[in-house]
Amino acid sequence: MTENNPARFRLTPGGKLTGCVRVPGDKSISHRSIMLGSLADGVTEITGFLEGEDSLSTLAAFKSMGVAIEGPDQGRVSIQGVGLRGLAAPRQALYLGNSGTSMRLMAGLLAGQVFDSLLTGDASLSGRPMKRVVEPLTRMGAHITMTEAGTAPLAIRGGMRLRGIDYALPVASAQVKSCLLLAGLYASGRTCITEPAPTRDHTERMLAGMGYPLQRDAGRVCLEGGHAMQGIAIDIPADISSAAFFLVGASIAPGSDLVLEHVGMNPTRTGVIDILTRMGADIRIGNRREVGGEPVADLHVRSTSLYGIDIPPELVPLAIDEFPALFVAAACASGRTVLTGAEELRVKESDRIQVMADGLATLGIDATATPDGMIIEGGSFGGGVIDSHGDHRIAMAFAMAALRATGTIEILDCTNVNTSFPGFVKLAGGAGLRIASNR
Ligand code: S3P
């Protein structure tokens, strides 16, 4: 439980999704806009910033390191960059709430500072693996201590001289890649990262947009420490990971006809569209354009019959945050859906394989958790009480299940929906989801 009286969702079965919605700003890009805007020279003006708790944790951390940040005010944030060497020592531990992205990326950035820092988080974040960043950072010359279990708090010693490394990521993780690139800004020589499969590349795009020299080849990125970057204007698109709930909801609820506006379409993030389309979904992509180095489009989705598929493992990193929603789609599909190669889901904000399998079983679906994925037989949802385990994406995924349920669904421990999707209840309710929250 995230607090004494966590939010609960109550969903009345049925309904459809219609109209036109713009979901909140992209979480990954919002984090990076604060981090890189702070380290740039000059002003960075952000629009579309996600005013969710995770990105606000990053914003608060940089404020407490002396960066002048105005906002957020309706998605607008203005940052007076302090330059690569301009951060000041924070007076206390940097508390990062539920946000794995804040902790892993900031570990790299803070490893190169002259001051010490301490990174802490909530119970979920304090259980997530940090060795994946601490180990390569240590190879770069950083000094970071964590618990024996390899988890936060992370105590980072300042004043260490970092050296660039050539590192092959053992897991396809944009957080680890970005962490090492941020440490590389402070390292002597070149830092090169090779990834086993493409992962989101927002860090690389934003660094390039700010004029930081970096070299990119297929599956590999290199940079040299010590260059400067310039503040820029950043227009953050709507988060495809938040849009995913609506793509699934509108696909499964008969009579749905929904437009999602200004959705980020970075090719390292669009696996959810590819997977749903393979399942038979009717998603039309229109008005393609580019904003500030990131592709954007409007998505028009209409309900159809879905069928089960074997999800191609190469799509997994491109849809890594969308599996809770995709499992709900699979439960509504005819036939069997099989996911493999997704063991990373076990170390997200919750164990998303087990928690989703348990919730689907509660609703009457035959779902078998496997070590690295799930086997789901399409069926029909009854009703019941679901424990989201404080995981925002689990809560929102099961909320969409109500569109095809025969009984009331109650979802527990939903407060953390605010980490990525403030205003979810209102926005989803306005589109036709029969949702109420106890607060
Ligand atoms: C993120 C990367 C992904 C994703 C997370 C955000 C990022 O994590 O699950 O929600 O912003 O870099 P991993 O890189 O650990 O897979």
Describe this structure in words.
By secondary structure, this protein is of the alpha+beta class. The protein folds into two domains: 9-25 and 238-437, UDP-n-acetylglucosamine1-carboxyvinyl-transferase, Chain (Alpha-beta prism), CATH 3.65.10.10; 27-235, Enolpyruvate transferase domain (UDP-n-acetylglucosamine1-carboxyvinyl-transferase, Chain). The protein has 13 helices and 23 strands. The chain has helices at residues 27-39, 53-63, 100-111, 131-139, 174-184, 202-209, 240-252, 271-278, 323-332, 352-362, 392-401, 417-420, 424-431, and strands at 9-11, 18-21, 41-47, 68-73, 76-82, 94-95, 117-120, 144-145, 154-156, 166-168, 190-194, 214-217, 220-224, 233-235, 257-264, 282-291, 294-302, 336-339, 366-370, 373-377, 384-387, 409-412, 435-437. The strands form six sheets. A four-stranded mixed β-sheet has the order 21-22-1-23. A hairpin with an 8-residue loop joins strand 8 (144-145) and strand 9. Helix 1 runs parallel beside helix 6 and helix 9 runs parallel beside helix 10 (352-362). The site of shikimate-3-phosphate has 11 residues, from helix 5. Shikimate-3-phosphate binds at residues 28, 101, 173-175, 178, 199-200, 320-321, 344.
